[in-house]
Protein 1
Amino acid sequence: QVQLVESGGGLVQPGGSLRLSCAASGITFRLYAMNWYRQAPGKQRELVAQISRTYSTTYVDSVKGRFTISRDNAKNTVYLQMNSLEPEDTAVYYCNMRTPMNYWGQGTQVTVSS
């Protein structure tokens, strides 16, 4: 019933920007914090950013100053604006929602390469 669908990934050159979106359905979106994770080949899944129901935000140190998480409750959507992208940002990015259950999107590939 609950679905999270990511979009916006792709191939970008170093220094470029992408904006990821995650649309939620089947749940009262505004009641829950939302998270972005990423997983690079050979690495564990990493929490990148999170936004609370009251719009407070948290970031992993490696993306501070470059990434911005936001949410639009009217659209049931969370965003991740990624600027000054680096090759190290290459990963599959996943949208996540933790209620008592843990919901995940299918992932969207971000590749930063020249």
Protein 2
Amino acid sequence: QVQLVESGGGLVQPGGSLRLSCAVSGFTLDDYAITWLRQAPGKEREGVSCISSSVGTTIYGDSVKGRFTISRDNAKNTVYLQMNSLKPEDTAVYYCATSGRICRDEYVYWGQGTQVTVSS
């Protein structure tokens, strides 16, 4: 039974930080790429970051590059998204998903999402 479960969202002030976690079960994380995506009300779904199974190669969307960092702990079957210097426009529901072995916009499994709100 494959599951991806996001956690770590919450309310934070502009300039603050959060760390999101994506706990994976039902498969070995070593073999799969994990993508973080987000969706804000009235906006299109946006790719945030992806980490591949191959040598941990990472990619970032332009809007988060330099502020967010994706990482993977295969022993814990968990992927993290460290978010620093948060802005109100980062407010969204954040999802993790797997696209198989490579980073691509085609997803096999999704988590339930975790809400991130950046506000004064």
Protein 3
Amino acid sequence: QVQLHESGGGLVQTGGSLRLSCVTSGRFIVRYSLGWFRQRPGQEREFVAHMPWGADRGWYANFVKGRFTISRDDTKNMLYLQMDNLEPEDTAVYYCNADRTTDARTAGPSDYWGQGTQVTVTG
């Protein structure tokens, strides 16, 4: 049973930073692609970033524009998203995602999700 739990959201001003964390568990979770999606108010859930198992880098949505960094520490079963230079458009609920399919940039019925953590950017 794969389980995910996000934390680290909050209220920040434009240009501020947040570091989101996701605690992961489950047998063979290390072999999953781990990533982040977000859902802005009134919008569909969208891909933010992911990092495949064994990868030395992450992959990002175009809107990230170099501002975010995804990382995973498989020795601690942790996934992170460092978000810098936040903008009001980044206001959303951010979800941790685990995906064992070949396309981790698209949400699918076999994906696992955390409960979400709220990020609000003002100014």
Protein 4
Amino acid sequence: QVQVVQSGGGLVQAGGSLRLSCTVFGLTFDGDAMGWFRQAPGKEREGISCISWSGGSTYYADSVKGRFTISRDNAKNTLYLQMNSLKPEDTAMYYCATRSFSECSGLRLSYFNYWGQGTQVTVSS
């Protein structure tokens, strides 16, 4: 049984930072690119970042570019999202997910097969 477990969400003031973590249990990490997505109330889920299996290539949506950094530690089966300079518009439920391919080719939701449970990030003004 595959589990994708997230942690690190919470409430933070605008301008602050959070680091989200995502650990995969029950399935090898080998070969999987991974991504971060978010969904604000009343809006569609959007892809915000992706990282290749090797960590050698990354993708960021324009809305988070320059503020968020995606990374991974394959030895720990863990994905991270460092979020700096947070804004109220970053408030959303954040999800991580795996893709059954080693490279990122956009952030279409259908590319990703195993999903975390989501963690809430709330940024106050």
